[in-house]
Amino acid sequence: MLGKRFSPHLSFISHLKKNLSLIKTILLSLIFTPQLVHAEYGLNLPKGVTSISRDIYGLHMLIFWVCVGIAVLVFGVMIWSMIFHRKSRGAVASNFHESTAVELVWTLVPLAVLIAIAFPATKVLIDLENTEKADMTVKITGYQWKWQYEYMDEGVSFFSSLNKASSDATRDDAARAKNPNYLLDVDNRLVLPTGKRIRFLMTSNDVIHSWWVRDLGVKQDANPGFINDSWAKIDVPGVYRGQCAELCGKDHGFMPIVVEAKSEADYKAWIGEQKERQKAAAAAGDREWSKDELMAQGQKVYSGSCASCHGVTGQGIPGVFPAITGSPIASGDIKTHINIVLNGKAGTAMQAFGKQLNDSDLAAVITYERNALGNSKGDLVQPSTIKSAR
Amino acid sequence: MSTTTTDLQNEIDAHATHDDHHHGPEKGLLRWVKTTNHKDIGTLYIWFAFAMLLIGGGMAMYIRAELFQPGMQFFDPQFFNQMTTLHGLIMVFGAIMPAFVGLANWQIPLMIGAKDMALPRMNNWSFWILPFAGMMLISTLFMEGGGPAFGWTFYAPLSTTFAPDSTDFFIFAVHMLGFSSIMGAINVIATIMNMRAPDMKLMDMPLFVWTWFITAFLLIAAMPVLAGAVTMMLTDRNFGTSFFDAAGGGDPVMFQHIFWFFGHPEVYIMILPAFGIVSQIIPTFARKPLFGYSSMVYASASIALLSFVVWAHHMFLTGMPIAGQMYFMYATIMISVPTGVKVFNWVTTMWRGSMTFETPMLWAVAFVILFTIGGFSGLMLGIAPADIQYHDTYFVVAHFHYVLVTGALFSIIAAVFYWLPKWCGRMYNEKLAKIHFWWAVISVNVLFFPQHFLGLAGMPRRIPDYSLQFADFNMISSIGGFAFGASFILLTYIIVDAIRNGEKVTDERVWDSAKGLEWTVATPAPYHTFDTPPDEKQILAESSHIHVEGVH
């Protein structure tokens, strides 16, 4: 429910006013720092759980120590001369100002060091770019601001977005303190088997996103209209968290990634459950829904899929995202309304939700938009109407 | 046109007699509007850059306040994105670049024995475009839908299809900033080529002049590419083209190629003049000629050439083919060779010198150390496979702030302290300036060093809120940020106090062992200098890199 946390549009002036409390907050948090601090001191890259993440870690440490070595040498000479070659100690300036031999040495030696680093770096690069011989394929699509995962060989697909506990805690200090995975938790995890070579295909539905899970050593841009790939073979079962790494608009900081690696048997069982769930959801679209049912489901869908742009109260953000309240579409012809929700609006941020939501969710959310958020059109949309409109 | 050579000659003669007895600057505000004097325009540029630094710095304070602790305290994320975007744009195009152009305006004519810049009226124009472009950029914040919120790199399609209406004003502002930079660069090249004292050979030029000469070529080559990128954005947004829209046959990644073909040379536009400044200051306070003058010139030129062929190292994760990644990795890490040569030369210049540590030297030494740290993280980022874990994290934020704040900005502060006594004939308060230096240099490291850890621990850049594991280092970083921000209040006081009440300096040389033609004119530098160019003897005597026995 992103819209609630962020008031629809705060003008520049009201920001200035709000920030009068800045100094107070900072002083208070300085005093109460001990309560706030419960973080681990992560100083370095973790090794991760794939061969690639470990190779990258090795490269990282290699180049780091090379840099440390050079730093000790260069800064050592510098500090030595700053201590001993100063006028106040009676140092008299020499006059040397050129030496081709020395220049040649400090051009060629670093060059040799670089070539030495380039060999292992190239090896890792070749390995991580080789996405062939995959056991399974997951297609990842970035949306503003959630991820869609499609298991290409299983026909299973779902969306994954920031969970409610996190989004409710952004303006609630107490809730945040109780939530160790604040902003790193999702409603639906990406479940993957261990020991399998998994190929990821990345693309995007709108702007550029970047799918990054550090422990897997995978980060790859998701470009609209193009498909990138990457791979991982997870060795250890566990939960691995990541975030979108490419600025993708307002809620870029709020689209985390959670990967849950399970043994192959557990993974198979999970896939089975998903298939059942999808069947049940499809069946729900075949019956007639009551208004109360539609409105209740509609509110859920609205806060999950619509509120981050159009606002929890339907006000939108003036000049960026249009309001639902009193909009000519939500209070006008029902066909136009269904059409724009199903197919989106080209050239704007309005997505085609026909690809994202099933018939009953679409029927529910359209009914909700027409009969809540300050609108009271009175008409209902049934899943069957959506089905025929597709 | 109608002006014949005779007319021109008459006019020149008239001017020559007229200017025999120089009069000072015009009185009042119009002096600054109409001025074509390189010293006046240099002053304008530097004050403008300083004002922009404070505005952009104010935005940085907002950003660090929001990131002081987890949770959303002061902003909605859309506004946070506007702040990061405008902070970057203002600092790059409003603060660092104009400051260097201001230093070039003041110093290049003085250092090559020229009367003025070659194209004084264009000089006036290229400055006066800036305040309008800057105001237009900032005014977007007050428009409906807010200002640009897509980062200073403005990647399409976030900056095209998904951007607020104010983006068109942003595009126009960038065009104007580009005009200004290109005209400034043309002026620098024309001045160095045509106005140099006749006896000064290219390899006699001080390093600051050399690095600016090279920078000017980079500007002329890179800025039109930026103009092309924003023009394509403009037509994509308003005229139905789809350069960057895959749905119409375009490619969003092509935007990044075009942007970084400008953007990477831009990085060196902001650091080469800094190399020049430091190469002037270190020999002065080490009382020793610059080590390896010619290798410094060649290193600067190779860095400039290489800067055009490494752009895609900003794009390792966009889906580049493996051959591309290999090439850009090799080319990128290659840049550390000439850059290393420069650092080694500075250190060797200090070696067995007779050093004193007045304020300009302190800033120069801090530059060498901290810029080198930024160079190390740059080398790490250049390793394509490792970049998977660094890219778009706070590790990158730490890296480019080390090279741009403790690199470019520190060199500008060093230059101002170094040349201020020459400009206004007054000395700054050395004690206060040293306190300020230590305050700034400690707080800037508290600010940026922990950001390396944040990046490695997994914090993406450009996020308004973060998970709890990043809380401690963010708080430390913010405290450093507030302290560094506050240090600029003291800096403002020191500079204003020096200009108004500073101890008078009359010695032409100012610093006992400074060399260079700028130290042969009176202090403070008169409104008009070098009516007659310096002769060969004087040029050789003042060259800081070649020690000529028996002349000095």
Structure, explained:
The complex is a heterodimer of chains A (390) and B (552). By secondary structure, chain A is α+β, with helices and mostly antiparallel strands. Chain A folds into three domains: 51-87 and 98-129, no CATH class; 136-277, Cupredoxins -  blue copper proteins (Immunoglobulin-like); 285-389, Cytochrome c-like domain (Cytochrome Bc1 Complex, Chain D, domain 2), CATH 1.10.760. Chain A contains 13 helices and ten strands. Chain A has a five-stranded mixed β-sheet with strand order 3-2-1-5-8. Chain A has a five-stranded mixed β-sheet with strand order 4-10-9-6-7. The longest helix of chain A has 34 residues, at 51-84. Helices cover 66% and strands 1% of the residues of chain B. Chain B is built from 18 helices and two strands. In chain B, helix 3 runs antiparallel to helix 4 (77-112), helix 4 packs parallel to helix 15 and helix 15 (394-424) packs antiparallel against helix 16 (430-457). Chains A and B meet through helix 2, helix 3, helix 5, helix 6 and helix 8 of A and helix 4, helix 10, helix 11, helix 12 and helix 13 of B.
Please tag this protein with its features.
A: alpha+beta; Immunoglobulin-like; Cytochrome Bc1 Complex, Chain D, domain 2; five-stranded mixed sheet; 13 helices; 44% helix; disordered N terminus; B: 552 residues; 18 helices; 2 strands; 66% helix; globular; disordered C terminus
